[in-house]
C-alpha cells in the first residue's frame, strides 16, 4: 500500500513540476516575444500575407496565438481578434478565435485547478481575485459566469483564471464561457474584416459602437459585482 501511495505521490509531483515549468516558460516567452507577436499581427497586410503563405497551418497558428493570449493574460486580446477578421473574414476569424480561446481557457483552468493561487497570481494580482471572490459561494455560479463573460468590457482574463478556483467543472465552464464570448469576438472580427476590405468608415463605426457598449458593459459589470458582494465570502485562501 505504501508503495502505491509513493507511486501516486511521485506521479503528482512530476505532473505538477511539468506544469510549473510550462507556466514559467510561457511567462518568459510572453515577456520576451509577446510584444513582437502583437506588433506583427497588428500589421494587417503583413499578417494576412503571412497567413496565406502558411496555408492550413496559418489557421492553426491563429488559434495558437489566441490561446497564448488567453494564457498570458497581460497581452491584449483585441488586436488578435481584429487581425483574425482582417486575415480570415468575420465568420472564420471569429471561429478560429473562439477555438483558440477555448483551448487557452482549458490550459488556464487546469493549471489553476492543480496549482491554485500559486499559478494564478503569476498573471493576476490577488486583489483582483478578491474583488470577485463572491463567485465561489454564489448559488447562481453558472448563470453569473455566462453573464460576466457576455458583458463587453468585463475583465475576462481575471475571470478565466479565477474559475479554476471555483467548484465549476471544466465541462461546464469551457462551453459556457466560449458561447458568452461570441458577441465581443464577432464584433472585433467584423471590424477587422472591414479594415481588410478598405471600408474604414464602417470599421470606425463598429469600433466606436463597441467602445460605447464596452463602457456600458463596464458599468453593468461593476453593478453586478456590487450586488453580488452582498453575500460575499471571506478572503481567498492559498492552495
Task: Give a verbal description of the structure.
The protein is mostly helical and 239 residues long. It has one domain (2-231). Helix content is 79%, strand content 0%. It contains eleven helices and no strands. It has helices at residues 2-42, 44-54, 56-71, 78-88, 90-115, 117-120, 126-131, 141-150, 156-162, 170-196, 200-228.
Count of all domains: 1
pLDDT < 50 runs, ≥5 residues: none
> What's the total number of strands?
0
**Which term fits the overall shape?**
globular
Radius of gyration: 19 Å
Tally the helices: what do you get? 11
Intertermini distance: 27 Å
Which structural class matches the secondary elements?
mainly alpha
**What's the rounded overall pLDDT mean?**
75
Query: Per DSSP, what share of the residues sits in E-state strands of 2 or more residues?
Result: under 5%
Q: What is the succession of H and E elements?
A: HHHHHHHHHHH
Assembly type of the chains comes to: single chain
Largest sheet: none
Helix content class: over 70%
List keywords for this structure.
239 residues; mainly alpha; 11 helices; globular
In a few lines, what is going on in this structure?
This protein is mainly alpha-helical and 239 residues long. The chain contains 11 helices and no strands.
Question: What is the topology?
Answer:
Blueprint: H1 2-42, H2 44-54, H3 56-71, H4 78-88, H5 90-115, H6 117-120, H7 126-131, H8 141-150, H9 156-162, H10 170-196, H11 200-228
Helix pairs in contact: 2-3, 2-4, 3-5, 4-5, 4-10, 5-10, 8-10, 10-11
